[in-house]
Design a protein that fits this description.
398 residues, alpha/beta, Rossmann fold, Helicase, Ruva Protein, domain 3, 4 domains, five-stranded parallel β-sheet, three-stranded antiparallel β-sheet, 18 helices, flat, helicase, hydrolase, DNA repair, DNA recombination
């Protein structure tokens, strides 16, 4: 649920109608009061009544609407966070639960409120950045805040114009369409979709007397949210159809700590601060990797009937995952191969040595080695850098 959005929709119009000064500060104060009473906690929010809000300084009719909206928002979000996949259970359901992305969430919240008030679809959104930084999580949270159904697709499912046509004909006005790895769409498919995005017209071919005729039919007013690790593969006209573009940055150590603490709580165990720091240091500032470690630690906690995990448990877990000297097995093999080849080699050669696809090496192995200064990319291939104190440092805590 999102307390801020509910306050914006319920309380701001009331304050504006009474010519209240400093509305921003007032709304922030109401939000702080609601959080202090636990209204951001689903178990409390789902049972909130008008009398529970009597001390926050709003008239009874406004409090009644506010309490109802908070309950409704909480119950709407609850169904989207429970699933068989542990990663799904750890995924935030609303902006209140999404850690990081502060300024971007503010911009999105304004766009969402404007869209709800106008009864129109939002502008199309493009999220870029490395894997595991929360593009899908943000898309699901946007759909929740907008109160709209979301359809999950991948670029590979939309490889041909015919794929676009069959999908668009099943969409309804107001839907949010999330396309992960949108760069997997062909150029022809992109051209078909950007006509839908800008003109709300779907190009079709009709069989008429005398042959086939190119025409178009109305398309529903939807919001496209695209996610990609490689925006350069998108056509410039297609890119221009996205009114909101955002590149997700890596999380700070503090944000990773907040994510880890939340995940431990949801998984039902506690972890020593030093142990959590070890996992964060090996997670490459990536929440998905951190949660994978914590889910494995949860398996250990359950299988050993324990609810308190230690840094020693983490050390053993990292060893089982074949981490050594702060590096994964693939990262070590990559560096060893590069060293054996004289310190320089092509990407294809390295991928063959790792028995991996070239794109997988680029996206999963090289990023951390580049960020920590162990290798550099050049026109002649990959080159190993002379070791520095920071590149040799073995991560132990965040």
């Amino acid at each position: 649920m999102s307390l801020r959005r509910v306050l914006e929709e319920v309380v701001r119009p009331f304050l504006s109608s009474t010519n209240t000064s400093d509305i921003e500060a007032k709304i922030q104060g109401f939000e702080n009061s609601l959080r202090a009473m636990g209204a951001a906690v689903p178990s409390i929010a789902s049972q909130l009544e008008v009398d529970d809000l009597k001390d926050i300084g709003l008239p009874a009719p406004v409090r009644k609407v506010l309490a109802g909206k908070i309950r409704e928002d909480c119950l709407t979000g609850a169904s989207s966070v429970v699933g068989a996949d542990p990663h799904t259970n750890l995924r935030p359901a609303s902006f209140d639960q999404v850690i990081g992305h502060g300024p971007f969430k503010t911009l999105l919240l304004r766009a969402i409120i404007a869209s709800r008030q106008e009864g129109k679809a939002m502008r199309h959104i493009l999220l870029t950045g490395p894997r595991g930084l929360g593009k899908t999580t943000l898309a699901l949270a946007i759909a929740h805040e907008r109160g709209a159904p979301i359809r999950l697709l991948t670029g590979a499912q939309l490889a041909r114009p015919q794929d676009i046509t069959s999908q668009v004909l099943s969409w309804s006005a107001g839907d949010i369409i999330f396309i992960d790895e949108i760069h997997g769409m062909s150029k022809a498919a992109q051209e078909t979709l950007y006509s839908v995005m800008e003109d709300r017209r779907l190009p079709v071919t009709e069989q008429r007397r005398g042959g086939r005729v190119q025409t178009s039919v109305p398309a529903p007013d939807v919001t496209i949210i695209g996610a990609t690790t490689n925006p350069s593969k998108l056509l410039p006209p297609f890119l221009n159809r996205f009114g909101i573009k955002h590149q997700l940055a890596f999380y700070s150590k503090e944000e990773m700590g907040q994510i880890g603490q939340r995940s431990c709580r949801l998984l039902g165990f506690t972890l020593e601060e030093e142990g959590l720091g070890q996992l964060i240091a090996h997670s490459r500032d990536n929440p998905r990797t951190l949660n994978e470690f914590l889910i494995q630690l949860s398996d250990l906690a359950k299988s050993s009937s324990r609810d308190k995990m230690t840094s020693q448990d983490v050390t053993e877990l990292l060893a089982l995952n074949d981490y050594e000297g702060g590096l994964s097995r693939h990262e070590r093999t990559y560096l060893e191969t590069l060293h054996q080849l004289g310190g320089s080699a092509g990407l294809t050669t390295l991928a063959q040595a790792l028995d991996m696809e070239v794109t997988e090496v680029e996206q999963s192995v090289e990023p951390w080695l580049v960020r920590t200064g162990r290798i550099r990319k050049t026109a002649r291939g990959r080159q190993i850098n002379p070791p520095t104190p920071s590149s040799l440092e073995v991560p132990t805590h965040g």
